Amino acid sequence: MSMACHLFGAETNSMTQSTVEGMSVMERAVELTKNGESFVMATVVWRQGPSSGHSGARAIITSDGKLHGWIGGACAEPVLIREAKKVMEAGKAQLIWLGQEADFKGMHVPDGVMTIPMACQSEGALQIYVEPVASAPRVVVVGRSPMAITLTHLIQALDWRVELIDMNDFSAETIDQSSIVVVATQGHGDEEAAEIALAVKPAYLGVVASRKRGKAVLDYLVDRRFTEEQIGKIHVPAGLDLGHTSHREVAVAILAQLVQLRATGAFDLNERREQATLLPTIEVVDVIDLVCGMTVRAEKSNRPFEFEGKTYYFCAPGCRATFEKDPSSFINQEAKC
């Protein structure tokens, strides 16, 4: 077999391997995107032998500095990781040219290209396009109000991921820390939806409500033992303050706020993980309303009444008033049971 055939075979094998590795990198990119994690994509656009990198080779660098894929040898990778972190912070793509210091002397370097001399003993050079990839936010809109439907359509127009979920189908399992949650039940489960979402620590939690109604929701969360700091992260009312608006304009105001926050990096999952603190476990205690026999939660909103050192809770004002008139009769009846 001729030398030319040997060289052609080696090149073909190299291209095949590069294609397979590239597919693996793209699968990883899809996985990161689904998890709401931003990353940097590095692509070799030019090489000069004997560099082990190949044109079209790709790699992903995550915010913690881990590299997935292959773009070159041991000299190129540390430099790439360092520059990728800078690109991620700046949010702007960069073309970097890695080579021997002597290669750059007297050479015209196009504007915008960063030359980085490497001290490797082997010769060769690489040009790598380093591009930040900000994952599309995942928005969960809870409720079926006209505003919720309008907001969903607007979000779809931005190519963000969005789901419209009924309150009855909403649970902690439907969201995670990278989710953006907009509670648009509008009086039909606002408190419960906000409580479920807040415990998960989503990237954003907004409640569509008037200021009066919003205060009632926040008061409920105080009773549920969330701290002032945790409750302070809720946007009530959700969206930018545009004054008195229609439901369509409310949807626009919410989307505008989300776009604004994303631009500041507020939805970056990795950065939030570094700053996050664990929420305390909320213990839910159920007790019996001794007047009507209904099961209620032992919380401030359920009309507590203290008698002989013990606190009792009631489903309605009438039950509490009845108990107040003759507590002993109800307590004795409970003891007999």
How is this structure best described in words?
It is built from eleven helices and 14 strands. The chain starts with a helix and ends with a helix. Helix content is 40%, strand content 20%. The strands form four sheets. It has a six-stranded mixed beta sheet. A four-stranded parallel beta sheet has the order 8-7-9-10, with helices on both faces. With 337 residues, it is of the alpha/beta class. Helix 4 links the parallel strand 7 and strand 8. The N terminus is likely disordered. It has three domains: 131 residues, no CATH class; 138 residues, NAD(P)-binding Rossmann-like Domain (Rossmann fold); 51 residues, no CATH class. It is elongated, with a radius of gyration of 29 Å.
The CATH architecture category of the largest domain equals: 3-Layer(aba) Sandwich
Largest sheet: 6 strands, mixed
CATH class of the largest domain: Alpha Beta
Instruction: Specify Rg, calculated over alpha carbons.
Output: 29 Å
Strand order of the largest sheet: 3-2-1-6-4-5
